[in-house]
Design the sequence.
């Protein structure tokens, strides 16, 4: 028996290499990777620019800690600030760390303003913000909370897309509203754009910070660099990770100068965050995402995937119910168990990811080609046909 702790229900697959949107198992099978490491491998596998960058940096310097200046870290922060609402960026290693840091920043902001009593955060039903004691308390998913004692205090949850309940939850102790513009683990649920605009208005009205969790839905996945851009508004704070390093562990907290005012030396830190290896890859990923036409191409491919998927899904109402999401963050809401559909896709040579609300997630690399979409659609069609024929 393996010494690896049994915290995962793993599929019986072992991969030895990847190339573009494909993964190859140790026994020679090829899979179309529309899971992308749960929306992480934003540029697929073995991207030449990323590989060369990492190899060059690995031959020079791996780690020094944040006791010293790291030039590529400064460069990546400056580039992210130039491309977004943010003025300040803190680097960490995971999306969980980014959300923890973002929550601390929101509380610290009010402390710096002379209102330390403002420390609570309003969250939304169906959210996923990580697996720490604080973030499982924020999401209030009973399955994730079970067995870990009383949930950490400081979080007040309201229903999804319900502005009245959200307003009612804001009180004199509220520091921030935390929200995923598109819920990933919750079932690829996009918020209405008017709802996002109202969140901005409500945060301003009540003097609380607006914190967006774009760990999964950000970094080009919807056809803009960040999903909230579709609503024409900006948050005060944002947590990002996943696609930021296209597979290399890196996350970040992004904030306006005003929101970050309380984060002074000694208030937060990370030993590994923003190390030379991570930020070199982060800059290489950004090189590609900011190329002329790249994000427009993601939007175009997202529309092609959506249209073709919707047509196929409509053919098999006994198996599939609907398509949801945005860009290359797409969910198939299933009639039959979504977990079984994910396994059926695997048997046909495509990797996908289950999610809440009985949804199978398709999260392909952002640089897929139309031929890869064709391949995926054929698999979805084949599974629907087999299931309808009684072979599911």
Sequence:
């Amino acid at each position: 028996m393996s010494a690896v702790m049994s915290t995962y229900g793993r599929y019986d697959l072992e991969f030895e290499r990847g190339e573009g949107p494909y993964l190859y198992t140790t026994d020679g099978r090829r899979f179309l990777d529309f899971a992308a490491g749960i929306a992480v491998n934003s540029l697929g596998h073995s991207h030449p620019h990323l590989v060369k960058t990492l190899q060059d940096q690995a031959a020079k310097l791996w780690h020094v800690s944040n006791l010293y200046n790291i030039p590529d870290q400064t460069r990546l922060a400056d580039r992210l600030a130039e491309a977004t609402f943010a003025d300040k960026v803190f680097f960490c290693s995971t999306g969980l760390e980014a959300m923890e840091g973002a929550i601390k920043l929101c509380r610290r902001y009010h402390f710096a303003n002379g209102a330390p009593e403002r420390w609570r955060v309003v969250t939304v039903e169906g959210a996923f913000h990580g697996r720490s004691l604080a973030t499982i308390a924020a999401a209030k998913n009973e399955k994730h909370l079970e067995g870990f004692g009383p949930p950490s205090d400081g979080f007040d949850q309201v229903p999804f897309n319900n502005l009245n309940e959200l307003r009612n939850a804001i009180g004199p102790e509220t520091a921030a509203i935390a929200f995923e513009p598109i819920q990933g683990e919750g079932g690829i649920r996009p918020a209405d754009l008017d709802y996002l605009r109202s969140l901005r208005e409500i945060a301003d009205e009540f003097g609380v910070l607006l914190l967006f969790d774009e760990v999964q839905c950000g970094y080009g996945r919807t056809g803009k660099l960040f999903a909230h851009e579709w609503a024409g508004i900006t948050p005060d704070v944002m947590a990002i990770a996943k696609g930021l390093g296209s597979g290399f562990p890196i996350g970040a907290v992004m904030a306006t100068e005003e929101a970050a005012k309380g984060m002074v030396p000694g208030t937060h830190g990370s030993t590994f965050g923003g190390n030379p290896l991570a930020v070199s890859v982060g800059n290489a990923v950004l090189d590609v995402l900011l190329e002329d036409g790249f994000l427009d191409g993601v939007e175009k491919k997202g529309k092609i995937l959506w249209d073709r998927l919707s047509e196929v899904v409509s053919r098999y109402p006994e198996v599939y119910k609907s398509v949801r999401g945005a860009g290359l963050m797409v969910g198939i809401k299933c009639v039959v168990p979504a977990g079984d559909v994910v396994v059926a896709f695997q048997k046909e040579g495509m990797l996908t990811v289950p999610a809440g609300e009985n949804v199978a997630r398709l999260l392909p690399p952002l640089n897929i080609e139309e031929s890869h979409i064709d391949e995926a659609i054929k698999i979805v069609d084949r599974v629907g046909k087999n299931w309808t024929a009684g072979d599911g």
